[in-house]
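Exercise (ungraded).
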Amino acid sequence: MTASTSSSGETDALRVEGLVAGFGDITILHDVSLAVPAGKVTVLLGANGAGKTTLFRAITGLVTPRAGSVKLFGDEIAGQAPHLIARAGIGHVPSGRELFPRMPVSAHLDLGGRLCPPDQRAALRQRVLELFPAIAERLHQAAGTLSGGEQQMVAIARALMTNPRLLMLDEPSAGLAPKVVLSVFDALGKLLNQGMSVLLAEQSMTFGLSVASRAYIIREGRIVLSGTPAELSAERSVVQAYLGA
Amino acid sequence: MIVLQLVVNGVLLGGTYILLAQGLNLVFGVMGIVNLAHGSIITFVGVFTYWVVTQTNLNPLLLLPLVFVVALVVGGVLQRLLLEPLAKLGNRRELLSLMVTFGLSYVIVEMAINLFGSQYVSLPNLQETWTVAGLAVNEALVVAGVLGAVISGCLHVWLHYTASGKALLATSQNATGAVTCGIDVRRMRGISFAIGSALAAIAGVLLILILPLSAPTADTLTILAFVIVALGGLGDYKGAVFAGLLLGLVQSGVGYYLGGDVEVIVPYLLLIGFMVLRPQGLGQAAR
Amino acid sequence: MNLDARQVGQWIERRLSAPASAGVSGPRPLSIGILIALIVCAGSVPLVTSAYILQLATDLLTFAALAYSWNVISGCTGYLSFGQVSFFGIGAYATAALVMHTSVPWYVDAVIGATIGGVSAALLGTIMLRLRGIMFALGMLGLARILMVVFSNWDFIGGAAGLTLPAQLTPVAVYLAMWVAALAAFGLNYFLLRSQWGLSVIGVRDEEVAAAAIGVPTSWAKTVAFIMSALAPAAVGGLVAWNRSFIDPPSAFDPTLDLQVIVFALFGGIGTLWGPALGTVILVIVGEQFWAYLPELQLALYGVLVIAVVLAFPGGIVGVANRFGWLRRRPVAAPAVFPIVSRPPRPATPGSDTIIEVRDLTVRFGGLVALNNVSLAVRRGEMVSIIGANGAGKTTLFNAITGFVKPSEGGVFYQGKSVSDIPSHRRAHQGIARTFQIPRLMESLTVWENTLLAARHGRRKDAAVEQAAWALHTVKLDNLWLEPPGKLSPGQQRRLEMARALALDPTVILLDEVMAGMTRDEQGEIREVLRHFRDLGVAAVAGVEHIIAAIADISDRMIVLDRGKKIAEGVPEAVLRDPVVIESYLGKVS
């Protein structure tokens, strides 16, 4: 059960090998390797502070990796500037959502849409708004005034508007009431069935394993376990020990 | 009648102040730093304009495009060399960027003093006073007030209706979010400092037509600009319009009733008093 | 100056080390030796050298005194000031007025000048210290301007034309007086950076809110530091005025003085004990050679120097030295080894059974209602968990109980008495401790000092050391006690926050997001600490967002907040089965 199980390199949307990253004197990620097969959902499970967000930020260039390789559909992107990685086709829904609080919802869609070819923008926008009808009603409202769940949907919508080749969702359930989490998961469930390449970070094992074709468990900056949902479900107690929930 | 006259003067003075402050505001909004060299750019360009005009007899307004472009380039270069290296320093960045721009302000001021002298100068081009409906209206103040409004208007249109402006606005509200949309945040910081410097340079050309300036008054102008930016809610350029008008009105009234000495310290008193009472600025209150 | 330096040194050493207060380390003999050597050199300078050298040495001491004073407020306390020259001017004018209108000896004038400087700092501090960051920095610059205008219009002391002082001091007298000022300013830095009390000021610099939460009287600490930073400049201002025998507002409130002082402190290392001295000595001596050739470029070059230092080595000389292990700050009051913990049993605290009562509490921020008419009570030794999503109002509730947020309506009662008018740090003294959603630890202090700061209130130094050791031992951080908090794992950081809370000897601890970010092992450790609270009779109120399972079984009661309202309360099993809670918070698991 290691990262190299998916051997066919060409069909991997994302391939991370030996990634090391940290801040200052502190190393947070130690030799992390994982692969996201194209057209499938891969989930990264881990407790808060396990290194999920740092891994996401290292992949998207917000944190510069110290060593290792990150390949997006075969192209090396490790060490590139984060905006170039975004342009290369990674749609990143960051933890904390990182919206523009005083700008309306529509501006978020426009800003995401900068990366989408102009002729496809209108159609894409249409599809995104169908996916999230709740925010379609609030296009002119400032993002800072939305509820937590709506803000999460705006963050996902903004990333989708970049027309990404790989979508990376960093804990879409964080900071939401369990009830709202269910509604966000509901919308995500629809999205994730559409054949996109997705890397999803979650704490919730139940949801994570229900949508993914492959899962990795991260703990203290290391991938400690990986496998198919079936394999991991069989070792439920082990996984839960790692997740702490 | 006196009150009305004071209001007119105050509003026009407020326009000047808005002109003075928007560059600082833009830099703060996007980069989160207060450019303490802001005033020194204004006075440098002001005394430079005086020097050029007295040497060549050129119309000072013709210098506007030149100083705009030069300040744009110089500002961009300075940002890249001096401020960008600090961007990754986390929580120490604020202190260190203040230090750097504080040092920069002395470099620019001393350059101006060595090149053009330290005396007060002003240009007599716009010294007429018109009488409109019984009110005395100073030509220079009208020009500055109108330009203050025009520049704020341009800023508004640019930030809200153009792709590059929206990208800048997005960066100022959330840099990480902007990066995920493929916006080059580093470039945005450079642009904001370049445009902030260019706005300061424009203010320098215009102010020398209105007020006597000397190179060492730079930090007075920086504080004045900062007071407006702070009163308006840091980075909130619409708030700065209100704050500029408020400061103009208060100062024109105080100057008339309490004398010039008190007028001079009004900005400082407002800064200290208002910040103690209402640290979040005017803009938030209006919302 | 005929004293035998070695005798003095030994005497001072004996004085400092004799009582050996419970392992509190005194200054090293080396520092004392350096100090004595300096004093001896200082005394001999006027006897052996030229007037030029004497003037240079006087300038050096003047700037050292100013740089150390600036370091007190801007370096140690974290309030960057561009207007310390205000106190220089106030002192200069105070001394000048004394000279003109009285006939007391000059050194008395200098002392009175310093006192007036300190008093004005105390008064001005009540306004200025409410400003933070850039507001304070520019507010101080503005203050200097305001004072300049005020003094220009004050005819009693000469108005805009200035004052000419009658008699000039001898250069030797000025020189010696500057020595005293410089040493005094250095002494204040030493006090702030090496004493238990000084930790309060550094706590304010690193995390002002957390400092108040662990009982530091932050306003008081800031004000004292502000007064300290005004003393030497005021004295120096008087001496300079007298030395020049002329004073006018522009020279008394000259903002470029602050530039120079900042350059010196920055070059040496801001917030360090030796930085201001090193920066001043090097730059004054180098500058002296340089300005002779390029007088008109002095300020511009200082500007360039500031930029260069910030970009090349922002920690200054001391920062560079630290990399080689030199001039490192030593932890305050840290014994040679972790103290063996033997803690006397806690005296039974009298008081009512209901520790905290919140009545009809409403908190509004503008139009947003963060807490809506919430009432609850916490009994002695009880474990209560407060469940709610982000934005449900948990943090606001904690902030209202600890005094960081003012209730719009309703009140908070502690042991039956309203605490509405009691500031946060005094609520901490009374026994209300808290932790933060994201740990707020003093990054430049060690684990040990973080805890000691909380343990200080109401204890003698050695008792504080024991208390801190006990608290760290209780959360099992003894082996990491000399690490900076930045090196701790998230779980350890939370436990350090708990140790700080525990060091206050609280009756109740409010824990904001107690389990967030914890691995299962870490959760286990935290549960252990929570159980320990119960054994100690300390009530705990834990805010929890997601990880309900890890907290439910150790909670006596559970309260659910939803968008600012309390929607349920009771024993955990009942609350988690409550249809209202399932409907509005937990959601139906499909």
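Further reading is listed at the end of the chapter. For now, observe: Chain A touches chain C at residues 24-26, 47-50, 148, 175-182, 203, 219-220, 240-245 (CB under 8 Å). The radius of gyration of chain A is 17 Å.
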